[in-house]
Amino acid sequence: MRIFSGIQPTGRKHLGNYIGAIVQYVSSQDRGEGFFCIVDLHAITVAYDPAELRQRTYDTTAILLAAGLDPARCTLFRQSDVPQHTGLTWLLSSVTELGRLQRMHQFRDKSLAQRELVPAALLLYPVLQAADVLAYRAHEVPVGEDQREHLELMRDVARRFNARFGDGEDVLVVPEHRIPQVGARVMDLQDPTRKMSTTGGSEQGTVYVLDEPKAIEKKLKSAVTDSGSEVRRASDKPGVSNLIEILAAVRGSDPAAVEAELAQARYGELKAAVATAVVDYLAPVRERYERLRADEDALEQILSDGAVRAETIAAETLADVRERMGVGGPRRARTVT
Ligand code: TRP
């Protein structure tokens, strides 16, 4: 089974990203053939600083490696190093409905937020995302609930391509969405009714993977709790529920077990326990990160090795797609030369 996920290049990955997405990438290395792509071409669809982009790509690479992605067991690469992603985007745009792209929530939200230019790339963002996954004929895509619309679009694009050009064959694989169970629920510590988020959340309510232990402690100790004093999960106790679930996630245990253990505890004790657990959980990741991040040549080497492996597979898919679409010369002639 092949697993593909894309991750935005940023050093500001938070605890929700970490236990929701990144930990899932790491464990998927045991279940299948993982492809993890740092999507620098998606990053240029909004205002960005060219001098920063490469640095943020290294940040993300180092975080993923520090978390436990192993380049010997998966393919970790940078999107722009594999030209088939953009090549396939154009070909797939011919089986993508324009109106559908214009109606995508993310396109609407982001285009409203742009102060100056709304780039065409923002509209094509989901087609590039479809190309990312379909180029590898991946079966499974571990990403959050917020990517549902993008996943549905890529599934439809694959189906439409197969129906139009497949001649009865499934040339492209229709991938499945795999939504993480845990990270999806990590809430902002200051406003536990909304998800922890780099863009919409509060700075104090967001724990970053690379935060110093002191900062993590401070954020958790000032987490908002609820009325009452009992440590248990309840719909009218979003703050306490969030802390219980975070503690369970970083311990790798069950929220019910945490509740049972802390049934007699006060809110302050719960916060202290979560603070210690999260600090202990992230400290080794941050240490490994610092070491890995210091050697940009080594990171570059890992990414370029990954790109070579990725390209072998993506080139094969692209050749099939071109052949089916009647684009370019016949396939045999191309592979011989
Ligand atoms: N759009 C995704 C996000 O913002 C990132 C992404 C790009 C992606 N290409 C992908 C995710 C392919 C899964 C598969 O999180």
Describe this structure in words.
The protein is mainly alpha-helical. It has two domains: 2-183 and 296-325, HUPs (Rossmann fold, 3-Layer(aba) Sandwich); 213-291, Tyrosyl-Transfer RNA Synthetase (Orthogonal Bundle). The protein is built from 14 helices and five strands. The strands form two sheets. A three-stranded parallel β-sheet has the order 1-2-3, sandwiched between helices. Strands 4-5 form a two-stranded parallel ribbon. Helix 1 links the parallel strand 1 and strand 2 (33-38). Helix 4 runs parallel beside helix 13 (296-325). The longest helix has 30 residues, at 296-325. The two termini are 32 Å apart. The structure holds tryptophan. The site of tryptophan has 13 residues, from strand 1 and helix 7.
Summarize this structure briefly:
The protein has 337 residues and is mainly alpha-helical.
Helix content: 55-70%
> CATH topology of the largest domain, anyone?
Rossmann fold
CATH architectural label of the largest domain: 3-Layer(aba) Sandwich
Determine the strand fraction and express it as a percent band: 5-15%
N-C termini distance: 32 Å
Contiguous helical run count: 14
What sort of overall outline do the alpha carbons produce when their principal axes are compared?
A: globular
The value of Rg in angstroms is 22 Å
**CATH domain class of the largest domain:** Alpha Beta
